[in-house]
Amino acid sequence: MYARWLLVALPILGLGFGVGMAVYIFSHAGAYTGNQEVERPAEDVTSFTWPLRLSTRVNVLLIGVDVSLGNRRQVLPTSRSDTLMLVSFDPARNRVSALSIPRDTRVLIPRFGENKVNAAYAYGGPGLTVRTVANFLGVPVHYYVKLGPQSFSKIIDAIGGVEIDVEKDMKYTDTWAGLHINLKKGRQLLDGERAMHYARFRHDAAGDIGRVERQQKVLLALFYKLKSASSVLNAPQLLRAFSENTQTNLTFNELITLSAFTARLDSSDLKFATLPGTNSITYWDPDSSKMRQVIAEMFYGVDASILASTQIEVLNGSGVPGLAKQMALRLQAMGFQIVRVDNAPSVVDSTTIIDRTGRPGVARLVAEVLGRSRIKREVGTGPDLTVIVARDLARGHTLPVGVSSRR
Fold first, then answer.
1. Model's pTM, two decimal places?
2. Looking at the domain 302-394, which fold is it?
3. Beta strands 284-286 and 277-279: pairing type?
4. How confident is the model at residue 69 (pLDDT cuts 50, 70, 90)?
5. pLDDT digits (tens, 9 = 90+) for 241-263
6. Any idea which architecture 6-287 has in CATH?
């Protein structure tokens, strides 16, 4: 229900670091910022190279979670995720793209069936949330950051507030939750608490979608503020507040690599979008056609029409029943044409993509979806691409985080 802390994650990843931060980071190189609950990509598959260089695309799911209160105002042991945002760091295009997923989005949650996407966290924590989002979008989720309710106000106050043009008067009171929002229209400097109120407000005709847009607006304001010299001086304190209120499977070195990458960008290199869809009585129903276009551009850097015109056959050489079908469904969800799913002539060790298109970017995209695959160029007749799913994918060595090796 509350999303104040999620607004912190992307700017923190984009914060340039000073000497104090560097000393802390390199003395804690192997540490995590929280208890790891989702497995990391295989050790032999890395997007991070020395020194602090991002070599390939990294997708990070930001999960905002708040406490839930019972009928006696007691804190309940489980809660739903309040806000979800998938952030893609793309070194090939020097771009950061962030897709907000409304919390009422209708999805299929593995083992639990159709529900709102925010229910995945209540059923299975970060692990099931990552898997649900990866399956729903058809995008590998390599890492995640879960943020708790204390992050937002502390970090906003640490940088001296953010300047926001509040688009209208906002007034709302929830005595039960202890929430009292009273903001006036106009450009103004908001401290942590008032910025939190701005980000939480959704009591107008736009509802949760309006709240998502305000979150993105505050993120951009934070980006500007965190790139300033005064904020860099506060880097160690900001990182400490972030680390004390988050859980992630990113190491500190990896966080700083993402920070260094983002700090070099301009605001025009930050792309925000909200999952296309429409409001029904209960759900945010995704618009599949528009969703595929957004995903193709933001997370793969290609035009959706190219995917729609590419024919793929998927052959199972893994020895695991159903694995080829699972990969075919993932590629189909992205917009590819799946023309055949069958068994390969024999079990093979390494997943291979046979490319007959003459468009290497398309084959590389499929390889990225699968995690890591060998690409073989072939001239001849047949589908544009043949994907031979092998034992390495079945073992999970290249299977993207959030993707199950079971049917």
1. 0.77
2. Alpha-Beta Plaits (3.30.70)
3. antiparallel
4. low
5. 777 777 889 888 888 888 888 88
6. 3-Layer(aba) Sandwich (3.40)
